[in-house]
Amino acid sequence: MFPGSFAFTWEQRKLGEIAPLRGGYAFQSNNFLEDGIPIVKISNILSTGEVAGEFSFYEELDDDTNFILPDKAAVLAMSGATTGKVSILSNPSNIKFYQNQRVGYFKKTDGINYPFISTLVRSKVFNNQLNSILVTGAQPNVSSKDIDDFDVLIPASYKEQKKIGAYFSNLDHLITLHQRKLVYLYIPS
């Protein structure tokens, strides 16, 4: 993809080694509020690749470090009709977002470029492995242990990961701009 730039040495790793999947918190729906900390639920993981829609809200909790989502967090729907859908949380203002149960968050780890991880978990390679382990029934679901056991190939070079991650992030941004332009230009009759 980037001839002459890198050595192109790739290595096979377990996804859990480079971006372990963290589960969310079981918020009580009877305690949802009209305002407060927004909760990312499965319904907020959209097929457009964005985290959006109508959020539920909760009061700020004292010990919440294990279910706060950072800007650009890659999140996964872990059950229901949309199991396996991955979206990216755009939160440049860094307001606090909570992660609901059955929403997985691919955690950042040292030495791995997170935009590269975001690209990897939205790839066909990831989806093929996901489809092979998907537990179906009344409601399909996956476990974080299953996802963490996925075999992935990643560039050994952080610089190469960064270059690939930036390339696809820019492409995603360009697609989003064109989609917004189409919505703006579309005038229903």
Q: Any overview of this molecule?
A:
This protein is of the alpha+beta class. 29% of the residues lie in helices and 17% in strands. It is built from five helices and nine strands. The strands form three sheets. The protein has a four-stranded antiparallel beta sheet with strand order 2-8-5-6. The chain has a three-stranded mixed beta sheet with strand order 4-3-7, with no helix packed on it. A two-stranded antiparallel ribbon has the order 1-9. The longest helix has 28 residues, at 158-185. It is globular, with a radius of gyration of 18 Å. The model has no long low-confidence stretch (mean pLDDT 90).
Keywords:
189 residues, 4-stranded antiparallel β-sheet, 9 strands, 17% strand
Name the strands of the widest sheet in spatial order. Answer: 2-8-5-6
Kindly report the average pLDDT value: 90
Low-confidence stretches: none
Helix/strand-derived category reads alpha+beta
Could you give the order of the helices and strands?
A: EHEEEEEEEHHHEH
* Topology, number of strands: 9
Estimated share of beta-strand residues: 15-25%
The Rg value, from CA coordinates, equals: 18 Å
Number of helices: 5
Describe the main β-sheet briefly. Answer: 4 strands, antiparallel
* Shape label: globular
Gap between N and C termini: 44 Å
Helix content: 25-40%
Secondary-structure topology with pairs:
Blueprint: E1 10-14, H1 15-18, E2 21-22, E3 37-40, E4 56-58, E5 74-77, E6 86-88, E7 98-99, E8 103-106, H2 114-120, H3 124-133, H4 144-148, E9 151-155, H5 158-185
